[in-house]
Every structure is written in C-alpha cells, then in structure tokens.
Target: Small ribosomal subunit protein uS10m
Amino acid sequence: MNTIKSIIRSAPLIRHAITPNYLIRPLSTPVTPITKAIEDVTPPAMELDKLYKRVELEMRGIDPAVLLSYSWFCVAAASHLGIEVTKSWAQRKADKERHTLLRCVHIYKKNKVQYEIRTYFRFIHLQRLTGSTCDTFLEYIERNLPEGCALKVTKVECLPLPEHLTPPKENNE
Model:
C-alpha cells in the first residue's frame, strides 16, 4: 500500500494508469437554488452605440509596394465586415525630405553629401459605421500594420442637436 501512495504522489501520468479515476475525483458540492425574486433585479442602463458618418485612414510608409498591399488588406477586411468603402487613393508624388551633410567635419565645404527620405501616402474613406464595428475593424488592422508604416485615423461622429438649437414648441391656443 505504501508503494502505491508514493507512486501517486510522484508521477501524475502513472497515477492515472494505476489507480481508478473515482479515487482521485473531488467530492461534488450540493447545488443550492436561487430564491431571490426576479422583479428585484433592475436591468442595466442601455448605452447607445456611437455612430460615425465617416472614418478616414491615412497610411504613411517608406515602401509604396507595402502600402499598396496593406491598403488592399484594409479594403478586404472592410468588405468582410460589411463596411462601405467610398474612396481609396494615393498621392501621385512622395514627400521628399533632404538633408545635406559635410563629408569632413573640419573643412572642405565643397565635399557635401545629400540624403533623401521619401514618404509615401495612401488614404481610405469609410462611411456609416457604428462604434463597435469601427473599434473591431481598427483593432484588427492596427494589429496587422506592417513594418515601416504608420496609420492615422480621423473619425467624424454623428451627434444629436443640442437643446438650445432645436426649434421652440408651438403652443396651440
């Protein structure tokens, strides 16, 4: 009997092979029924979902092929979620940033080197989104953002008119 106890304590794989399962199972606890009345429970307050008229995606990167592939991915993900894509375009020319440096630190102003950084842009406009759909879509495309790319999101939210802008109620007298 002592050898069985030492085997049970030492190796869990051997424990299942030697001992029957009913010896290892914990005792079940009795289930007590809920006696509260259903009327006492108040429903949680319903929070309305946000509505967006338009969501604009601006993608920046240093490689135009990667940006094109990523914009195709975003449009395909939007179509799978049933989001309406109104525009998807790119700028014709890249933004160029030039930096001029001297080759030698001390003298020789004639020997300069010029470095150039090109930034490419792509834009996507989405229309008529709910807040939950927008959050799901943006989280998905942000997680799949490739290396060397940046994403800027601009949302245009639909809001009700404030009370001071609504027309006054007419009195029927």
Residues 64-80 form the longest helix (17 residues). Residues 51-91+119-158 form a domain with the Alpha-Beta Plaits fold (CATH 3.30.70.600).
